[in-house]
Each structure stands twice: as C-alpha cells, then as structure tokens.
C-alpha cells in the first residue's frame, strides 16, 4: 500500500485514524463518516512539481498521484474514457447578472452527470478489493452511473429505490444491466436495506458515505485550479446529499494547505425551495440538519430531505465565508433556458440551480462574488421534461425564401 502517500481513513468528527486496508464506511468509535487522509507532506512535495498534464484516456490516470491508486493498469478495466471536465468562461450570462468573471464547470461525465467522477474511483477500488456486487440507494443519476461502470468492469450493480419511482429514471439504469430493487417503503427503508446487504453480504456501497466517492470527487477542485491558474473567489455547488460540497472543501483545503492557492474560495450551497433542509439549518444557525418533508417540485434530483453530509456542508460553508441559497422551480427553469440560449449549455434542473442562485446572491447580501464558478452537475437530456412544455413545433410555412423571412420577422 501507499503509506507515504495516504495516512489512512480518518474520522471527520473524533479524528480516529484507521489503516486504509481496514476499509469501513464510518468510524467504529463514533459512527461519523471517514475521510481518506493524504499525507500533507506528500501533497506539498507532489504539488510543488506542478499539476499533471491532461490525459485523454482517463482523469484517473491524470490525477493518479493524488488518488488511492496503486496499479494504474486497473484503470483500463473500468474506464469509460472519463476526462477532466470542461471549464467554460461565460460570454453573456455573467454580464447580465453583474458577475463578469463567471465560469461554468461542466461536471458531465460519460453517463451525462457529475456522478461519474466519484463512481469511477469507487468501482476501481471495488475491483482492487475483489468485490463482485456494487450497490447504492438512488432514484437518479447515481443509479445510471454505477450501472454503466459496473457493466464496464464486469460487476453486478444493484440499486435500491422506494415505491413509486419514475420508470423513465430507472430505464437508464436498467439498460446498462443494473438491477433495480423496489423496496416496499420510503427512501429511508431502501437505504436501510442497502446498508444491510453491505454489512451482511459484503456488497460494495458506492453511495453516500463511501470515502472513496468523496476522494474521487475532490479532484473537481484540483481541476478548477489547474484550469483557472488560481483559486476562484466563489464556487456555487448544488447540494442534495452534500458529498459534492464536502469533496470541494476537501480538495480546495488540500491545495490551500500545500500553498498552491493563496486564498480559499467562498463555497455557496444551493438547494431547492421544495426541499432545503441544509439551507434551513444554515439560516437558523444550527450545526446539524433536521429532516424536512419534501414539497412538490419539477426536479427530483437534489431533493434529499435527510442529507448524510449536511453537518459537514454547514461547516464547509461557514468556514469559507460562503452561504446557502434556495431557488424555486420557476427560477431554475429560467436558468436552464438562459444557459442554453445565451451560452449554448444545456443543463438539467439540478445542474442549473447554481446559475439560478447566482441571480439571488447579491440580494442575499453576499457582495461582489469576484471570480466565480458555477457547478453544472448534469446534462439537460437527463430530464428534458423540465422545459419541454414551454416549446411547441410551429405550423408549416410555404417553401419560399420570403416565407422564411416573414416567419423569422427578419
Ligand atoms: Zn469518530
């Protein structure tokens, strides 16, 4: 194992450290989630050599020095050609929102969402550990992501969902060969059964508490700093379960502690008004998150009423001087249309909320966000229904140049 590189798995609450070979999903002493803890000396030395160059085969190859990868050969057995995601400067939308230095981080992997970044490392570790079944509880993008990577790796994927799950969402998982287990109960019941299969059958949990998922996702921060050549001032991150926020905090913190960046970005969490338990806890000054009852929303992503990373999202946002913003369905639908028509970027509802929140930042008293990155977490094709009703096919016109000009009002 890589002792000089990784100190072990460290509890995020009590600080207990266990060897990585004793892999667990939570602290044996207090039950809190674990963080894959890299040696600060190792990170400082490696980062002093500069960031690695992009690798068109897989970002796992490119970032392997900063990931728990012993044998790069395993990457070829699980890879779907995931490459570091694009960072695009805004050409119009930023100016219209009075955020001129706005960038979009398009976290859209081979299965069209951000989930692939964490899944790729989870599945690689499952192969290294000789596990034969991947599992998680999810009704959305994560289900498709593990089913696709499971298919690629030749592993079985099992997804636990609650009753009344959307058939359209599950079809994407099933076409990759994923097994969908519909539990007679709510999402909490589905998650509990998944956890039981992990503990009793040795299945590999690819969901929420897996420290490798967060370790993989933290390269989001490394990618942004390499692409910008500096730290952003503000990063807006959609928060459902909250793993993405915690991973960003981990990644930017490592770069700050190694002296690569001079300041920490302010991290802004974004939730939907229909389900905003972490934003509510933040506004109330609480240190833990109380589950809420979901209200109806057009989006069913980031609608997590009992987020497993909520406590740590609150810490990330408070310690970096950020905030939480909640947006309505009407606001994210406007953001989807604006992003598409003004920038050529088609996002799903959960992916567009970071842009919707930007329009509300100043009103929330945030001040000038400076060099800003909005995390766009999924492609619009994951949920085209969000805006489909707003567009109709126009009536046919005569096949003449004049009729085209009359139709366009030119
Ligand atoms: Zn602990």
Q: Can you describe what's shown?
A:
It contains 17 helices and 13 strands. The protein is an alpha/beta fold and 410 residues long. The chain has a six-stranded mixed sheet, with helices on both faces. α11 links the parallel β10 and β11. α5 runs parallel beside α6, α5 crosses α9 and α6 packs parallel to α7. It is globular. The mean pLDDT is 95. The site of zinc ion has 8 residues, from loops.
Tell me briefly what this model is.
The chain contains 17 helices and 13 strands.
The overall average pLDDT, rounded, is 95
Alpha-beta content class: alpha/beta
Helix content: 25-40%
**Structure summary, number of beta strands:** 13
Tell me which ligands are bound. Answer: zinc ion
Instruction: Detail the poorly predicted runs.
Output: none
**What order do the SSEs take from the amino end to the carboxyl end, as H and E?**
EEEHHHEHEHEHEHEHEHHEHEHHEHHEHH
Strand arrangement within the widest β-sheet reads 4-5-13-10-11-12
Computed CA radius of gyration, to the nearest angstrom:
21 Å
Q: Overall 3D geometry?
A: globular
Assembly classification: single chain
Terminal Cα separation, in Å? 67 Å
Q: What share of residues are in beta strands?
A: 15-25%
Largest sheet composition: 6 strands, mixed
Number of helices: 17
Features:
410 residues, alpha/beta, six-stranded mixed beta sheet, four-stranded parallel beta sheet, 13 strands, 15% strand, globular, binds zinc ion
Secondary structure topology:
Elements: E1 6-11, E2 17-18, E3 34-38, H1 40-48, H2 59-62, H3 75-78, E4 86-89, H4 93-96, E5 102-106, H5 115-128, E6 133-137, H6 141-153, E7 156-162, H7 167-175, E8 179-183, H8 187-201, E9 204-205, H9 211-217, H10 219-228, E10 234-238, H11 243-257, E11 266-272, H12 277-283, H13 310-319, E12 323-327, H14 329-343, H15 349-361, E13 372-376, H16 385-388, H17 401-408
Parallel strand pairs: 5-13, 6-7, 6-9, 7-8, 10-11, 10-13, 11-12
Antiparallel strand pairs: 1-2, 1-3, 4-5
Helix pairs in contact: 5-6, 5-9, 6-7, 9-11, 10-11, 12-13, 14-15
The chain binds zinc ion (ZN).
């Amino acid at each position: 194992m890589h002792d000089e590189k990784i100190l072990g798995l460290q509890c995020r609450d009590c600080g207990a450290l266990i060897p990585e070979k004793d892999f667990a999903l939570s602290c044996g002493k207090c039950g809190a989630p674990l963080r894959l803890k890299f040696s600060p000396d190792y990170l400082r030395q490696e980062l002093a050599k500069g960031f690695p160059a992009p690798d068109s085969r897989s970002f796992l190859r490119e970032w392997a020095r900063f990931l728990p990868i012993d044998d790069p050969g395993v990457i070829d057995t699980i890879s779907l050609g995931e490459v570091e995601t694009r960072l695009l400067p805004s050409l119009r939308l930023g100016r219209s929102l009075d955020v001129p230095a706005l960038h979009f981080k398009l976290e859209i992997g081979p299965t069209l969402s951000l989930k692939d970044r964490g899944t790729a490392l989870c599945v690689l570790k499952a192969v290294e550990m000789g596990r034969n079944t991947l599992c998680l509880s999810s009704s959305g993008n994560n289900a498709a992501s593990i089913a696709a990577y499971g298919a690629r790796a030749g592993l079985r994927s099992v997804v636990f969902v609650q009753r009344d799950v959307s058939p359209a969402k599950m079809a994407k998982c099933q076409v990759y060969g994923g097994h969908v287990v519909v539990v007679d109960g709510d999402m909490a019941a589905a998650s509990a059964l998944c956890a039981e299969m992990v503990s009793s059958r040795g299945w590999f949990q690819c969901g929420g508490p897996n420290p490798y998922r967060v370790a993989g996702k933290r390269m989001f921060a490394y990618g942004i700093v390499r692409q910008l050549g500096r730290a952003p001032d503000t990063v807006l991150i959609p928060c459902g379960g909250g793993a993405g926020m915690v991973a960003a905090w981990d990644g930017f913190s490592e770069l700050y502690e190694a002296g690569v960046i001079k300041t920490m970005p302010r991290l802004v969490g974004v939730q939907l008004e229909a389900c905003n338990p972490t934003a509510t806890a933040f506004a109330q000054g609480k240190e833990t998150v109380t589950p809420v009852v979901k209200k109806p929303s057009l989006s069913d992503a980031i609608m997590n009423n009992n987020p497993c990373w909520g406590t740590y999202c609150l810490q990330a946002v408070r310690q970096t001087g950020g905030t939480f913003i909640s947006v309505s369905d009407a606001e994210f639908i406007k953001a989807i249309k604006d992003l598409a028509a003004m920038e050529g970027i088609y996002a799903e509802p959960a992916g567009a909320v970071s842009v919707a929140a930007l329009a509300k930042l100043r009103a929330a008293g945030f001040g000038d966000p400076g060099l800003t990155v909005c995390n766009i977490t999924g492609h619009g094709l994951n949920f085209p229904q969000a805006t489909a009703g707003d567009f109709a096919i126009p009536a046919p016109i005569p096949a003449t140049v004049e009729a085209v000009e009359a139709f366009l009002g030119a």
